[in-house]
Every structure is written in structure tokens, then in C-alpha cells.
Amino acid sequence: MSDWPELDAFLETDPADVGCDEAMRILHIYVELVAGGEDAAARYPGVASHLRQCGPCSEDYEGLLALVTDPPSDGLRQTLRKKLRGPR
Ligand SMILES: [Zn+2]
Questions:
Q1: SS3 call for 61
Q2: 62 CA to middle of ligand 1, Å?
Q3: Alpha-carbon span 37 to 29, nearest angstrom
Q4: Measured in angstroms, how far is the CA atom of residue 78 from the centroid of ligand 1?
């Protein structure tokens, strides 16, 4: 800790970090960009910065990206469909 709280805050968190709410709001757009080979981090540096620092949000991001870039196989899709329908 120093006598300069702003500096401490700066070192702990990236000032560009948009926070969870904003990151989640933009996440699907961000994922589309990444999946499309665009430089999403350059477009949304605040989101990129947040995903580096926030575990839960980066997990959501990884999951969404996996879904977009690697669609579930037929077998998995059927399993999901069964789960969505629920037990009969
Ligand atoms: Zn977050």
C-alpha cells in the first residue's frame, strides 16, 4: 500500500475494465467478432480487459465461444434436446 490510493487502484484493476454488467451486455457481440476472426480486443478493449480479470465472465466467454466456434455434435445435441424437454 502507498499513500496514493489512485495508484493502488490503478495497479489492481485496469482502468479500461468495463465491469461485469457491460461485459455481459457486449459478450455475444464480442464472441461473434472473435469467431469471425475479427480483432475483438481492439474493438472492445474494455471487455478484453475485463475478461482477463474476471473469472466468472471469462468462463462465460469461453463457453459461448466454444459453442459458436465448435457447435455440439449430433449426439450432444440430442442429449441437450432431451434435457431441455425434461423427463417424461
Ligand atoms: Zn465480470
A1: helix
A2: 13
A3: 13
A4: 31
What pTM did the predictor assign? 0.65
If one counts every other C-beta atom within 10 angstroms of the C-beta of residue 36, the result is 10
Let me know how long the chain is.
88
Residue extents of the structural domains in the chain = 16-85
Question: How far away, in angstroms, is 57 Cα from ligand 1 center?
Answer: 4
Q: Which residues contact 26 (CB under 8 A, 6 or more apart)?
A: 18, 44, 47
Cα(23) to centroid(ligand 1), Å: 7
As given in the structure block, the three cell numbers for residue 34 are 472473435
pLDDT digit string (tens) for 15-56?
689 999 999 999 999 999 999 999 999 999 999 999 999 999
Q: Going by C-beta distance under 8 Å and a sequence separation of 6 or more, which residues neighbour residue 56?
A: 20
